[in-house]
Design a protein that fits this description.
It comes from Chryseobacterium oncorhynchi. InterPro entries: KH_dom-like_a/b, OsmC/Ohr_fam, OsmC/Ohrsf, OsmC_Ohr_Peroxiredoxin. Pfam families: OsmC. By secondary structure, the chain is α/β, with parallel strands linked by helices. It folds into 2 domains: about 40 residues, no CATH class; about 100 residues, GMP Synthetase, Chain A, domain 3 (2-Layer Sandwich). It is about 25% helix and about 30% strand. It has 2 helices and 9 strands. A 3-stranded antiparallel β-sheet has the order 1-2-3, with no helix packed on it. It has a 3-stranded mixed β-sheet with strand order 4-7-9, covered by helices on one side. It has a 3-stranded mixed β-sheet with strand order 5-6-8. β2 and β3 form a beta hairpin. α1 packs across α2. It starts with 9 loop residues before the first strand and ends with a strand.
Length: about 160
């Protein structure tokens, strides 16, 4: 039997400067992303689309979702395999293509996880587990483009 998990988020637009969306330049793209019992996140659109560069945009949040999902599965599989990870950082990158009508889509995402393990004997298995994490990541399984990963595994 398959389980279903339900999620709820609230997005509240905060960019009305007094005249609403009376014209394309008369409103801000600012909004608040909130989930019950959690700290709110300030969002906007990408600066390329008249957004506030000091706030998170949907493209960054999407990329972060892929990266954190991969990391959480990876750490899980390492713990099961006896691989002791002492540090993990990922500088994920993504490419979004904007089409002639103004819409767009991501064409690829590449994760660049830099992992530190406690012993040299763990390196090979630690590298292999990135493939398994990619196969299990809920978010990666929900997209229609490749999620690549170029891991580096170091010993502390």
């Amino acid at each position: 039997m398959n389980k279903e998990h339900y999620y709820k988020t609230t997005i509240q637009w905060t960019g009305n400067k007094g005249t609403g969306t009376s014209s394309y330049k008369d409103y801000e793209r600012s909004h608040i992303i909130s989930v019950e019992h959690k700290i709110s996140i300030e969002g906007s659109s990408d600066p390329s689309f008249r957004g506030d560069q000091t706030k998170y945009n949907p493209e960054e949040m999407f990329l972060s979702s892929l990266s954190s999902c991969h990391m959480l599965w990876y750490l899980h599989f390492c713990s099961e395999a006896g691989i002791i990870v002492t540090d993990y950082i990922d500088e994920a990158t993504g490419i979004m293509a904007e089409t002639s009508n103004g819409s767009g889509h991501f064409t690829e995402v590449t994760l660049h996880p830099k992992v530190t393990v406690s012993e040299r004997s763990m390196i090979e298995k630690a590298e292999q587990l990135h493939h398994k994490a990619n196969e299990f990541c809920f978010i990666a399984n929900s997209v229609n483009f490749p999620v690549k990963h170029i891991p580096i595994v170091l010993v502390k």
